[in-house]
Amino acid sequence: MREPTELENQQYQRLREIFATARRRYLDAGGDLHRSAGSLNGQDFLTDEEKQEISNLGRQVFVRESNPVKNSNHVLLKKAM
After folding, report:
1. φ, ψ for residue 33 (rounded to 5)?
2. Taking 60 as the threshold, does the pLDDT of residue 73 lie above it?
3. What is the value of pTM for the model shown?
4. Which residues on neighbouring strands pair with residue 69, listed in sequence order?
5. Among 17, 37, 53, 75, fewest CB within 10 Å belongs to which?
6. Which one, of 49, 62, 54, lies nearest residue 18 by Cα?
7. Do 14 and 57 contact (CB within 8 A), yes or no?
8. Please, are residues 22 and 37 in contact by the beta-carbon 8 Å criterion?
9. Does 71 score more than 70 pLDDT?
10. Using the 8-state DSSP alphabet, how is residue 32 labeled?
């Protein structure tokens, strides 16, 4: 296993920021603190641009690779794929 690169760390942090923004919008709109929001529940709080950015970043950060990142939260997601 290897350490994440600076770019990988930045990409992963950006994903977290977008998800945090969506969560904040959901709560600001009166959403339930104990419930998950998202398009599966018919409650979408991301712009089309943010959805596209998540899609692009997700393909870059959570790719299957033979040399997964060490000591990182997203290594578990890579293994789960």
Report:
1. -60, -30
2. no
3. 0.69
4. 2
5. 17
6. 54
7. yes
8. yes
9. no
10. -
Residue with tokens 């959805």: 51
Q: Is 13 helix (H, G, I), strand (E, B) or coil?
A: helix
CA distances from 81 to 13, 17, 30, 33, 78 (A): 20, 22, 33, 28, 6
Instruction: With cut-offs at 50, 70 and 90, classify the pLDDT of residue 70.
Output: low
pLDDT at 58: 87
Q: Residue 43 carries which DSSP code?
A: B
Backbone φ and ψ for 58, nearest 5 degrees, come out as -60, -40
Is there a contact between 81 and 58 (Cβ–Cβ < 8 Å)?
Answer: no
Quickly tell me which residue has 């409650």 as its tokens: 43
| Direct distance between the N- and C-terminal alpha carbons of the chain, in angstroms, rounded to an integer | 17
Look at the block and give the residue holding tokens 């603190």: 33
